[in-house]
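U., I forgot to send this yesterday:
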Amino acid sequence: MPTDPSDPEGAIAAAAKRCSNWGRWGGDDVLGTLNFLDEAKRREGAALVRRGASFSLAQRFDANGPQKGERRRTNPLHMMLATGLEAERGTQGFPHGIGGADDTVSMPLQASTQWDGLGHIFDHGIAYNGRRAGDVVTSEGDQVTGIETTAGLIAGRGVLLDVGRVLGDDGELPDGFAITADHLEATITAHGETARVGHGDLLLVRTGRLTRARREGWGDYAGGDSPGLSFTTADWLHRTEIAGIATDTWGFEVRPNEFDNAFQPLHQVVIPHMGLFLGEMWDLDALAADCARDGVYEFWLTAEPLPVTGAVGAPVAPVAVK
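Result:
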């Protein structure tokens, strides 16, 4: 737990100072911790493909998804613009019998499996690298660190830490379980050498929260109580120099948060100060089961977000290959 649960402002300010990457890659930097994921790390990740087994880490994007309207987030709305019915009846106006189907989707960009971009969270009106929030994100979107700046970059060595399987009952952590750096290190020890975490890695943390939501129903999966990373992991995340981290939960960090009267304090440090990319609502169950079977917790991971210009977060369909 933080030293003083009643002082989120002080803890956030202190952690922000310790974990800041402002200026580390120059005043114009827009990539934050993705700077750690270089060509050498991609070669390392690609060399991990041995069996060719692949795993989709995305939840489905549909009207039956996890969202319940909190913070105006809704589930995707998918509609057809043209169907096979019109094609059968020859009413589409195309020559020589050709027909087709077309569709559209409307949704918040963080409705399901997604990345948080660097313009998603501010600290006292300041965005990543010390920029004014209003200069970064306007009514036209993120003018500086839009998610499109990551195009082609998020692919490399992935590592799964199945904290739920190591520390939980039946592979699941209870709501409110704060995963500390000691818990992460204990999980690495339990998994072995292939779970070592370091410079440029893409870290996946499974809590088992999505597993329970599938069994019991969505309930408060999106926005409610949940296991997640402790605020105290900020220094560990900074020290390990990972390029990004994703979890199977809605909010990445433990909920309820560890401070009185606080909302997502770890976000407030790691995004605007560290420049760390956060993935949320990833489906890690099938990959975790395979890792438990063969004892290998590293893999090639590709996870490029949909490059919506100016977006502060975007859907992603990650694929892990072993």
